[in-house]
């Protein structure tokens, strides 16, 4: 069971996202969302944390769908609502799995089912250093405030845009410098182009029940949608 644990997690993520992408009726998407949320709430005691972690991706997805709708209204709003619901459910399942299982286990699973090692390592390192980037932003913001910068000014004000441009440029430079230091540190510790992630504990029976609980309902709903 331990050898297939990470593979089962990654494969279940892929299957769920494929199932969600095949829905064409907004009603069945809503039914599936309600059932999925119920399974999450019953099983995962950190469900609220998973929802909180998915806030930024969901807002970004909503913005992109709304922007696409503004540019082209010929398809009607329902098509765009369906797109948003699909992306929301996919984001939620990824966030919940990341809360329940370690991110390294998920990435290891994707490697085992055929994802390119380079791509998997890039995703892992990007996720690993999100907190570092946010802390860097916070320190830069504090430095700007100490020099008299005020948040209340309008975004389109020239001085504000100038300062924000400086902030973004400085962040890129600092990120490049930090990435160079991190890479050199990895080389000094034996990195040879491939990350070796620790294989963690095996799946429990309750984990398998949870995975079945999120994969079977959308499969049934898909069958009903296609047949009826």
UniProtKB/TrEMBL annotation:
The keyword Transmembrane applies. The chain crosses the membrane at residues 7-23, 29-45, 57-75, 81-101, 204-224. CDD domains: EcfT. Keywords: Cell membrane, Membrane, Transmembrane, Transmembrane helix. It is a multi-pass membrane protein. GO terms for cellular component: plasma membrane. InterPro entries: ABC/ECF_trnsptr_transmembrane (IPR003339), ECF_transporter_component (IPR051611). It comes from the Bacteria. It is found in: Membrane. PANTHER family: SLL0384 PROTEIN. This is Energy-coupling factor transporter transmembrane protein EcfT. The lineage of its organism: Bacteria, Bacillati, Bacillota, Clostridia, Thermosediminibacterales.
